[in-house]
Amino acid sequence: MSLLDISPVVPVVVIDDADAAVPLAQALLRGGIGIIEVTLRTPAALGAIERIAAEVPETVVGAGTVTTPELAAEAAKAGARFLVTPGATDRVLDAVADTGLPSLPGAATVSEAMRLAERGFTELKFFPAEAAGGAPYLKSIAGPLPGLRFCPTGGITAATAPKYLALPNVGCVGGSWLTSGDVETLAEEAAALR
Fold first, then answer.
1. CA–CA separation, 30 vs 114, rounded Å?
2. Is 77 part of the annotated catalytic residue set?
3. Sign, CA torsion 71/129/148/117
C-alpha cells in the first residue's frame, strides 16, 4: 500500500519527551489514524520512533525532517518505516534509497518535482505547502505532471485540508494540528476527511 493511501491526514509531530510518544500514537490509532511522522527536530525524536515502533506496531511510524544522510540511517535503525525529507539533495536521496524504506522526498517547484520523477519518485511531499502556493499551485501542476502524487505539508489546517484532498494529485495531507487538543477526537475528525 502507498504511504499516501493509509490515511487522509498524516500527523506531523514534534516530540520533546520520548515517554509521550506511545500515548500519542495510541490516541491517534484509537481515533482512526494509523500513521505518524515524527520530525527529527528534537533530541527525543529517535527514541520516540523506537518506542512507537516497538510498542504500537499497528501504527506506521516514519521520520520527518530527514536533512542529512546520517539522519536517514539513524531513523531506519530506530525503526522508522518511512522517511520524509523537506527538500531533495543528491546525498540525502542516495542515503534514503540506501535504507530501502519508502520515502516522500520534498519538492516545492515544478523543476524539483520533475527532477525527483527522473530519479523514479512518483509520490512526493509538497513543502512548504501554503507558502509555496497551496492547493491552487498543486491543481495547476496536475496537468503537466500527471504521474505525480503529493502529500502537501506546511501550514495546512483542519479547515484547509479538504481543498487539498479534493485534488486528483493529492493522496493525503500532513498536519500538525492533530496534537493541539484532544488527540483522539481530532484524529477521528481527520480520519473522516476525504
1. 38
2. no
3. negative
In the numeric block, which cell numbers belong to residue 182? 484532544
How many Å from the N-terminal Cα to the C-terminal Cα in the chain?
18
Please write the tens of the pLDDT for every residue from 44-67. Answer: 999 999 999 999 999 999 999 999
Residue 125 — very low, low, confident or very high, per pLDDT cuts 50/70/90? very high
Cell of residue 90, nine digits: 543528491
The gap from C-alpha 163 to its chain's centroid, in whole angstroms, comes to 18
Task: Centre a 10 Å sphere on the Cβ of residue 127 and count the other Cβ atoms it contains.
Answer: 26
Helix (H, G, I), strand (E, B) or coil at 67: coil
Return the closest-CA partner of residue 106 out of 81, 131, 70. Answer: 131
The cell for 67 is 536533512
Q: pTM for the whole thing? A: 0.97
**Which whole number is the average pLDDT over 171-178?**
97
Active site residue 163: no
Nearest-angstrom CA–CA distance, 24 and 113: 33
Catalytic residue (choose from 70, 125, 163, 184):
125
Report pLDDT for 104: 98
pLDDT at 194 (0 to 100): 78
